[in-house]
Automatic annotation (TrEMBL), chain A:
<dbReference type="InterPro" id="IPR017871">
    <property type="entry name" value="ABC_transporter-like_CS"/>
</dbReference>
<dbReference type="InterPro" id="IPR005670">
    <property type="entry name" value="PstB-like"/>
</dbReference>
<dbReference type="InterPro" id="IPR027417">
    <property type="entry name" value="P-loop_NTPase"/>
</dbReference>
<keyword id="KW-1278">Translocase</keyword>
<dbReference type="GO" id="GO:0005315">
    <property type="term" value="F:phosphate transmembrane transporter activity"/>
</dbReference>
<keyword id="KW-0547">Nucleotide-binding</keyword>
<dbReference type="GO" id="GO:0016020">
    <property type="term" value="C:membrane"/>
</dbReference>
<dbReference type="Pfam" id="PF00005">
    <property type="entry name" value="ABC_tran"/>
</dbReference>
<dbReference type="InterPro" id="IPR003593">
    <property type="entry name" value="AAA+_ATPase"/>
</dbReference>
<feature type="domain" description="ABC transporter">
    <location>
        <begin position="5"/>
        <end position="248"/>
    </location>
</feature>
<dbReference type="GO" id="GO:0035435">
    <property type="term" value="P:phosphate ion transmembrane transport"/>
</dbReference>
<dbReference type="GO" id="GO:0016887">
    <property type="term" value="F:ATP hydrolysis activity"/>
</dbReference>
<protein>
    <submittedName>
        <fullName>Phosphate ABC transporter ATP-binding protein</fullName>
    </submittedName>
</protein>
<dbReference type="GO" id="GO:0005524">
    <property type="term" value="F:ATP binding"/>
</dbReference>
<keyword id="KW-0813">Transport</keyword>
<dbReference type="InterPro" id="IPR003439">
    <property type="entry name" value="ABC_transporter-like_ATP-bd"/>
</dbReference>
<keyword id="KW-0067">ATP-binding</keyword>
Length: 259, 379
């Protein structure tokens, strides 16, 4: 239940503007890969191309290949809906569906994809997903209350539970902790550690300590200046990136020196 | 040492300042009104409402400024004058609304009866009204047929315009992505919003006369039906529904759509199961406002459905009356001329009361719907 992702010569465009240029990466199954870099360098954009969420923005397009266990998700005849069922995503801002209860939120992916479930299957799945997201003990007594009544950190874990309830192969996280307090952040980082036993996890983060704590490999993106495309500067083992990076640019960013 | 002495000399600035008692503005307002009434009696020899109102307003503003400026200082005086002007404007804006409601309720309330609500104008004769005005009989006639007509025509207009309006708004928000068709529709909707209602009525009548003329060349007049009126109302209603729904749909955060897409949910299902449920309260209250807007239309009904005296449940054949056309007709062409026209006038006021009550009920319903269906953040 986990796939390898090969990114080959990936260029990403917003209209005519080239946002990201020539990305080459190989993401191993059952690992955590962190994407770091300054704002606007294209790391979120790269993440969003991995489940074809990129094209939700009008005018956005991609050239190059993204292979998931050898299958190009940008190949002819590929339905983005099917890709997204394999590749789940957690967003920067927790976004539980406001009209649904906690339980309905967890089951939303499955229900909306018209899979029929018996009540006991649904209960099972709810518990499994919420346990998987480390939220079960906090919400088991109020599953029928609206998801928007939870705290920010709980909402974010609810979104993770919702994402893993559809049993994806890959889980993408776009700055999942940027709006959370340190305790909720810790809970989610622990969760990421557990998730990598089953999923390929790719996480975008601004917090370098977080990248160092949770990831196996780290990719550093940078941008030469406004209006220029973002580039993948270095992709390496996390320990190497943070202790002994190959590129000077990476070293400067990691240590807080720029230019 | 030097700094401390400096400090002690500059502490003449205090945080407290003189303040007028809280009731001052009200006392001044009442005093201004009394003074205005006295002036009115002296200068105009009687109680004259417009003169008193204007005088009281002017005296109030000047008095408030003078009192406040002499005691509290210039800045607070200016503030008080601004408050006074804003409050007076609000009261002024309420005057027409309250007097309209008062008129309708007092005149309509006096005239209304269960008989009027349950009878039609079928077989109405001037003699009956003359007897009523002479005090020899109770009021005859009624507007049950107009209530039925209003409900049927408005319901049909809703059946036509709600699906078209809501689906157009969904297209504009979810699919158009600022393409040419989307811009063209937005422009046309804006133009439609400004169409005079009589033109919408003429359009619907011309449309159905043409169609009827093809079927039965001799009888173009059969185009005057309740359905034609409903189409005319739809022309007025669709742009309102589109505009309101579009605004509400744009308020649904992109986050929610993306969350749904990321779960592998197709676009149409995201719209049906996520976007619409999230915005349903807003859409429904927008629709209710559109209904309230067209339910009082008179001109388009007159040219499309005529004036019926009898009850007609069939939208597709024969003339129909609605409450607005009934009011118009009663006031303009009373059943009996002379003093007995009073009876027609009373029926018109009763119908007006029913119409106002219907519109208020719809607005109330919109609020209840919005409240009940709005996403809750329970804990």
């Amino acid at each position: 239940m986990s796939k390898q992702i090969d990114i080959k010569d990936l260029d990403i465009f917003y209209g005519d503007f080239r946002a990201v240029d020539g990305v080459q990466m190989q993401i191993k199954p059952r690992s955590v890969t962190a994407l770091i870099g300054p704002s606007g360098c294209g790391k979120s954009t790269v993440l969003r191309t991995l489940n074809r969420m990129h094209e939700v923005i009008p005018g956005a397009s991609v050239s190059g290949q993204v292979l998931m266990d050898g299958n190009d998700i940008y190949g002819a005849g590929v339905d983005p809906v099917n890709v997204r069922r394999e590749v789940g995503m957690v967003f920067q801002r927790a976004n539980p569906f406001p009209t649904m209860s906690i339980k309905e939120n967890v089951l939303a992916g499955v229900r909306l994809n018209s899979r029929r479930m018996t009540k006991s299957e649904a209960d099972d799945l709810t518990e499994r997903a919420l346990r998987g997201a480390n939220l079960w003990n906090e919400v088991k007594d109020r599953l029928s209350l609206p998801g928007s009544g939870l705290s920010g950190g709980q909402q974010q874990r609810l979104c993770i539970a919702r994402a893993i309830a559809v049993e994806p192969e890959v889980l993408l996280m776009d700055e999942p902790c940027s709006a959370l307090d340190p305790i909720s952040t810790l809970a989610i980082e622990d969760l990421i550690n557990d998730l990598k036993d089953q999923y390929t996890v790719v996480i975008v983060t601004h917090n370098m300590q977080q990248a160092a704590r949770v990831s196996d490999k780290t990719a550093f993106f940078n941008i030469a200046g406004t209006g220029k495309p973002g580039k993948l500067i270095e992709f390496n083992e996390t320990s190497t990136i943070f202790s002994n990076p190959e590129k000077e640019e990476t070293e400067n960013y990691i240590s807080g020196r720029f230019g | 040492m030097l700094t401390t002495t400096n400090n002690s000399t500059t502490t003449s600035r205090t945080l407290t300042s003189k303040q007028l008692p809280k009731a001052t503005p009200w006392v001044v307002a009442v005093a201004s009104i009394i003074v205005a009434i006295i002036i009115s009696f002296i200068a105009f020899g009687g109680f004259n409402i417009p003169v008193v109102a204007v005088l009281a307003g002017l005296i109030n503003v000047v008095a408030v400024f003078a009192i406040s400026a002499s005691y509290e200082g210039r800045r607070k005086a200016t503030d008080r004058v601004a408050t006074t002007v804003v409050t007076s404007s609000f009261i002024l804006a309420c005057v027409p609304l309250i007097s309209l409601l008062w008129m309708t309720i007092s005149k309509g309330g006096a005239a209304i009866s269960f008989d009027l609500l349950s009878r039609t104008m079928l077989g109405m004769k001037g003699v009956l009204d003359q007897q009523y005005v002479a005090g020899e009989a109770t009021i005859a006639g009624g507007f049950y047929h107009a209530i039925v007509g209003t409900v049927l025509i408005t319901a049909m207009a809703c059946i036509i315009s709600i699906p078209i309006g809501v689906l157009t708004a969904i297209y504009l928000v979810e699919y158009a992505e600022k393409n040419r068709l989307g811009k063209a529709i937005t422009f046309l909707v804006d133009v439609m919003t400004g169409i005079p209602s009589i033109v919408a009525g003429l359009f619907a009548f011309a449309l159905f006369s043409t169609i009827a003329g093809f079927i039965m060349p001799d009888a173009a007049g059969i185009a005057k039906t309740g359905f034609t009126a409903a189409v005319a109302l739809s022309v007025l209603m669709i742009p309102i529904v589109v505009r309101n729904t579009e605004e509400i749909l744009r308020l649904v955060p992109m986050d929610l759509r993306e969350a749904s897409y990321a779960l592998g949910v197709p676009k149409w299902k995201t719209i049906v199961k996520i976007v619409l449920p999230t915005s349903v309260s807003g859409i429904l209250s927008g629709i209710t406002i559109a209904i309230a807007r067209v339910i009082g239309e008179t001109a388009p009904i007159m040219v499309t459905a005529g004036f019926a005296k009898a009850l007609n449940w069939n939208l597709f054949s024969g003339w129909m009356s609605t409450l607005p056309t009934f009011i118009y007709d009663s006031q303009l062409r009373p059943v009996s001329p002379g003093d007995a026209a009073l009876a027609s006038s009373e029926r018109a006021w009763a119908a007006a009361l029913v119409l106002v009550a219907l519109v208020m009920l719809l607005n109330l319903l919109a609020r209840v719907i919005a409240k009940v269906l709005a996403p809750k953040a329970g804990r």
